[in-house]
Amino acid sequence: MSFAPLAWLALYQLSHPGPTNKTGSVGNNVLCHPNRAQNCLMINVACSECRLDQTGMEFDYLTLDDLDLREKRVLLRLDINSPLDPTTNQILDDTRIVAAKFTLDALTEARVAVLSHQSRPGKDDFTSLKQHAELLQKNCSQNVRFIDDVMGPAAREAIKQVQKGEVLVLDNVRFCSEENVEDTGEKLAKTNLVSRLAALFDLYVNDAFAAAHRSQASLVAFPYVLPSAAGRLMEKELSTLKRLLKDPERPSTYILGGAKIEDKVPVIENILATGCADHVLVGGNVAKVFLKAEGQRFDKSEEGELAKASDQVKKAKQILAKHRKRILMPSDFGTLSSGKRVETSIQKVVRAGTVLDIGAQTAERFATIINESRTVVASGPLGVFERDGFESGTKTILEAMAISSAFTVIGGGHLAGYAGILGIADKFSHVSTAGGAMLSLLAGEELPAIKALVEAAKRQERG
Q: Residue 147 above 70 pLDDT?
């Protein structure tokens, strides 16, 4: 019930610009408006003083428009974690690195040091950020340097030498054991990582939305000790996702698939309970769990896998009891038989072999619903689309979204990468750089990194 690594992700480049640089006046202090510490990001309300044009947000955090950035020493937390080729260790997809450009463009008058991570301890792709820094240089106007240290004497001295218009990329922050512990910002602020680095900076900027669901030192502790703000990408991601949750155009349709059912079931529960979704279309392993909850049988091997997901099946049964009319499940499948795809009705699937895609009829039915919707959100493929012959379900859905006049959002590396291969990545209203953080927000969960920024803004207001 898992997908293979996607070597073709290198074909995808993020094609949507970040939020335009707003024109709020900037004074001599950290805040551009001394009497307004928090950004006016309420639903469909613009702050005329800052000429903000954001919708769908109600987080009271500072943004770059609230800060005087000139000559300031800025610690910038990015998420440039990227898939690597398992053979060469080269970066396969630079989407997140390209996306960092929009915040770096706003920091050309500052002296910037970057904190980020690559994978985590124990993984084969847990490596240095040297090649990330090289790619970052190609995507921003500043001079970018790299140092193979994070908080040691060499790193601290290099930080002191950074000049206006320069960017210093520190090495993988997860090389520091303190970064691999999750706790409160108050407690993590006492770590050596934070105490050693914070003293060298005037401001902290978090642009790592893809890691916002983590409660690690580089994400939640620096806002506790430094004036802090969200970066451009963070703003854009949150603005888009809060629009989905707070003020979606109707009908609002969600398409949820993929292998990680434990991530998707809470999302389905939340968007249906809160009324954000008028329709939920399911595919991949998510569909199998919901069909199993209704008593559908599959072949022996898949029944064994579903037995391991009994808790999710139980939860799906509870969701169906309340919201059955709004959940649409496949009526046919693409199954594997003698090495080939076979279209199989749901009545015959128990004897048809392994299910690897939604069927052609289901794909067309889903496409019709997409065409009739005004908001469409997709996360996770609807089948094992990396395998020849089983990409059609996911392809049909993405192509239907691409020609739709609706507000369309796709999230996660699988869908974004495949949209790039199809040449339609620029046809969506928003392509999220996040997987887990996007799903956590859609599931109604609190994002620790965002909470840290909000609390920092409150402290800043109190003075």
A: yes
